[in-house]
Amino acid sequence: MHIPDNYLSPSTCAVMFAAMTPIWYYSVQKVKKTVTQDKIPLIGIGAAFSFMLMMFNLPIPNGTTAHAVGGTLIALLLGPYAACIAVSVALLIQAFIFGDGGILSFGANCFNMAFILPFVGFYVYRFLNRVIPSKVGHKIAILIASYIGINVAAFVAAVEFGIQPLLFVDSAGHALYCPYPFWISIPAMTLPHLLFAGVAEAVFTMAIYEFIGRVSPGVMYDAGKIKLNPLIGLLVALICLSPLGLLASGTAWGEWGGNELAADASLGTALGYIPDKIAHGFEYEALFPDYTVSGMAEPLGYILSAIVGAALLVIIFKVIGSMYHGNKKAC
Question: DSSP character for 309?
Answer without folding.
Answer: H
